Amino acid sequence: MSRIGKNPVTIPEGVTVTLEPTVFRAKGKLGELQMPLTKNVTVKHEGNQITVTPNGKEKTARMMWGTTKRLIENTVNGVSTGFTKTLEINGVGFKVALKGKDLVMNLGFSHEIVYPIPADVKIECPKPTEIKVFGADKQRVGKVASDIREYKKPEPYKGKGIRYSDEYVRRKEGKKK
């Protein structure tokens, strides 16, 4: 029995849910998201709770039980509160700034890197060495943060680069004479 799948998803106030045979839709203050549903699970909407049950005892049905419940929970939480990823920049002269609808980064290269901000994601720079990525879709926020981090990954010798705020970079010892 799935420990994740057996618990129902509670719908907060201000979120409206539409359940169709193949699509789950949620609409809230941060926008509207939809999620495709598989035929391996049954989704029921009763009051302010959504329950997910597997169809049969097949392995794929049991696997999709907890996965579908979490995806529905992320969709509902996304349209009500949203998701945030914070990136930190370490290095001498490394900085970021917002210019219009672009994120301009100086990362030690001979040129600036200009990253166009997608329409469904908001980016803030409270400090010149910090980036906050905010949006309703958890997967999209993670992808944008990953794309930004990809420009200059943290290196293990001096720790320079872009890293997540909760990421630990294991440091290595340099050359010895």
Short synopsis of the structure:
The chain has helices at 59-80, 138-150, and strands spanning 9-10, 16-19, 23-28, 31-36, 41-46, 49-54, 83-90, 95-99, 102-106, 113-116, 121-124, 130-135, 161-164.
Could you please describe the fold and organization of this structure?
With 177 residues, the chain is α+β, with helices and mostly antiparallel strands. 20% of the residues lie in helices and 37% in strands. The protein is built from 2 helices and 13 strands; from the N terminus they run ββββββαββββββαβ. A 4-stranded antiparallel β-sheet has the order 11-12-7-13, covered by helices on one side. The mean pLDDT is 93.
Which helices and strands, and how do they pair?
Blueprint: E1 9-10, E2 16-19, E3 23-28, E4 31-36, E5 41-46, E6 49-54, H1 59-80, E7 83-90, E8 95-99, E9 102-106, E10 113-116, E11 121-124, E12 130-135, H2 138-150, E13 161-164
Antiparallel strand pairs: 1-6, 2-3, 3-4, 5-6, 7-12, 7-13, 8-9, 9-10, 11-12
